[in-house]
Design brief:
It is built from seven helices and five strands. By secondary structure, the chain is of the alpha/beta class. It is globular. Keywords: Lyase, Metal-binding, Zinc.
Length: 192
């Protein structure tokens, strides 16, 4: 049986037996928080449980490394929507130790793309079009510095108001222990 068939079979049971009822909530986060975190499988439930959040308490945005790369990309848009439309009053940026983005090298991922069938000409076309694919695919050296960067991108965004605290944390993916990197309640000098 394929994965999709397994999903559809289970989903029928999930709906027929009304297993969804324990997850019923509104679209507004009860704790008025939006979390940007990594897509790492170890964090799917760990991030919220380690902070004592349950279903319905927070909005969660996930991407590789909990990184805000572009001020007008989909990650930043999702955070702004959470603040202005879904009543989030605080932002938590949560990276993690042992993150795959900390060892990601663009040359390696481009090599893996080629093995899966992406043509060198496609990569060259993107580069010739002015897209810095090498920098775009590169990871980071320090999770703490990466978190500080994402916090700064959010906090200094021209559409973000000053009264929204933006915190930065790093979680240990094996224990759930949190390390505070940026306390969003404290006024800090931000380099523009």
């Amino acid at each position: 049986m394929s994965l999709l068939n397994e999903i559809m079979e289970y989903n029928k049971k999930f709906v027929d037996e009304k297993l969804y009822e324990e997850y019923s909530t509104t679209k507004f986060p009860d704790k008025k928080v939006v979390i940007l975190t990594c897509m790492d499988t170890r964090l799917v439930e760990l991030v919220t449980r380690a902070m004592n959040f349950k279903n319905g308490d927070v909005k969660i945005v996930r991407n590789a490394g909990a990184i805000v790369n572009h001020p007008f990309g989909s990650i930043m848009r999702s955070i702004l929507v959470a603040v202005y439309q879904l009543q989030a009053d605080e932002v938590l940026v949560v990276g993690h130790h042992d993150c795959g983005m900390s060892s990601l090298k663009s040359a390696k991922i481009i090599e893996d793309m080629a093995k899966r069938g992406v043509k060198t000409e496609t990569i060259d076309t993107l580069r010739n079009a002015g897209i810095d694919i090498d920098q775009w695919l590169e990871g980071f050296n320090s999770v703490e510095e990466s978190i500080k960067h994402s916090v700064q991108m959010i906090k200094t965004h021209p559409l973000m108001v000053d009264d929204i605290p933006v915190h930065g944390l790093v979680i240990e993916p094996h224990t759930g222990k949190l390390d505070l990197v940026v306390d969003g309640y404290k006024k800090v000098e931000v380099n523009n």
